[in-house]
C-alpha cells in the first residue's frame, strides 16, 4: 500500500474529542499555531474577494480578528510559518492564475505580523522556519514548552469558492469536491485536494510522533468565554510504527499525476467527536449572528492596530511585489 494511503487510513482512525481549549484542556499553557493553516482558514472565507479584487487589508483584518479572539479568551500561543508549506495556504478552489496573489498576500501578512504583533502583544511570538522537520524548529519546539499544536487538516467545505460565480472559474480538476468532514470519502477527491490533505496530515502525523496532540483550527468555535475545538490524540509509539522506514516527506508536494487515490474502499471510523459539554452537538456550527457580534467587538478593540496600516501596506506591497517580479 502506498504511503499516502497508509497516512489517510491512519488519520481516519485517530481518537478525537471536542474540548474547551482554555477551560478544560490547556489552561494558560502555550501552544503553537501553524501560520499557513490560519491563512488557509482565512483565505477560504467566501466573503473574501481575491478576484477580481485583491482585498489584502480585509484578509489582514480577518487574521487579526482571529488572533484577537484567541487573546480575548486568554490563550497563550506563538505563530509559526514554514516556508516549505507556503503552498498549503492557497485554497483548493483557486485557479493557478491566482496563486501568485495568495503568495503575495501571505508574504505581506507575515511581514505585518513580524513587525507589529509583538508591539501590541509582546507574549505572542511570530517565528519563521524552513520546515517543521528542520533542526532549528526542533530546538525551538523544545525550548518553547508548547503543550499542543494547532493546524488545519486540509478538509474544506464547498463554500470556499473565492466569491466566484459558477461560470467565473476556468475548467479545472483542482476544484474541491465539497468534503468538509475529516471522516469523509477519500476516494473521489481531485489530486489537488489530496495533496492539500496529505501536506497537513503528514504534519499532524509528525507532531503526534513527537508526543504532541493536535487541535484543528478549521473546527474552532468561540462561544462566550470558551474556545471549542477538536483535539486529535494518538500514542507516539503507534504513530512512529506507521511507516517501516522514515516518515514520508510531503512538505513540498506539487501537482503530479503520480498521486492517485486508493482504489480499495475502506470504512472510516464511525465514531464522531466525544461531546465535551451538554448540548455540544451543534457547537461546531457557528451562527452568522454570533460571528457578526464577535466581529464588531474585535473591530472596536483593534483600532490601535490600524493607525498606520495603510502606509505600512503600501510600503510592504511595493517591496514584496518588486522582489517577486524581479
UniProtKB/TrEMBL annotation:
> Is this entry keyworded Manganese?
no
- Chain ranges of the ATP-dependent RNA helicase DDX60 PIN-like domain: 16-157
Segments for region (Disordered) = 169-188, 250-293
| Gene Ontology MF: a single term | hydrolase activity
Q: Where is the composition biased (Polar residues)?
A: 270-285
- Tell me which UniProt keywords the record has, alphabetically: ATP-binding, Helicase, Hydrolase, Nucleotide-binding
Query: Matching Pfam families, A to Z?
Result: PIN-like_DDX60
**Biased amino acid composition, Basic and acidic residues:** 257-269
GO CC list = cytoplasm
By what name is this protein known?
A: DEAD DEAH box helicase
Which species expresses this protein natively?
Answer: Aspergillus sclerotialis
Q: What is the lineage of its organism?
A: Eukaryota, Fungi, Dikarya, Ascomycota, Pezizomycotina
